[in-house]
Amino acid sequence: MKIHLTSVFVDDQAKAEHFYTEILGFVKKHDVPVGEQDRWLTVVSAEEPGGTELLLEPAAHPAVKAYRDALVQDGIPLAQFAVDDVRAEFERLRDLGVRFLQEPLEMGPVTTAVFDDTCGNLIQIATEPQ
Questions:
Q1: Where are the alpha helices (DSSP H) in the chain?
Q2: Which of 9, 44, 85, 91 has the most CB atoms in a 10 Å sphere around its CB?
Q3: pLDDT, tens digit (0-9, with 9 covering 90-100), for 17-26
């Protein structure tokens, strides 16, 4: 068994597509209309185009707002992405205007940082433990 797809709820799929592809550097994998306004919109790592897909899922379900608001209020990231060098990625993203809530922080064998994805979520980047 392996993880094939996971999702993040987003307020606006077009805005999320721009942020996740143009700013974070993911690559669009699927973009299929669903209904009148929504899309089955997935992105993947440019380094692993056949890897795990991230669904940029519309945040329309009534439970989503309370769930995400509570996570953001408590500073809890919805997802974590692995990077080779958190400090370098922090600098790159900050230079692109990404707002960080936690600057790089060493936590035992990993370094983490947390940013706002502009779509309603906090995302953590981290180095993989060596």
A1: 13-18, 62-73, 86-95
A2: 9
A3: 999 999 999 9
**What tens digit of pLDDT does each residue of 84-99 get?**
999 999 999 999 999 9
Are 65 and 11 within 8 A, CB to CB? no
Q: What is the 3-state secondary structure (H, E, C) of the chain?
A: CCCCEEEEEECCHHHHHHHHHHHCCCEEEEEEEECCCEEEEEEECCCCCCCCEEEEEECCCHHHHHHHHHHHHCCCCCEEEECCCHHHHHHHHHHCCCCEEEEEEEECCEEEEEEECCCCCEEEEECCCC
In this structure, are residues 99 and 115 in contact, taking their beta carbons and an 8 Å threshold? yes
Residues in the chain, pLDDT under 50: none
- Output the six-digit token pair for 129: 């433990």
| Residue whose C-alpha is closest to residue 118's, from 30, 26, 16 | 16
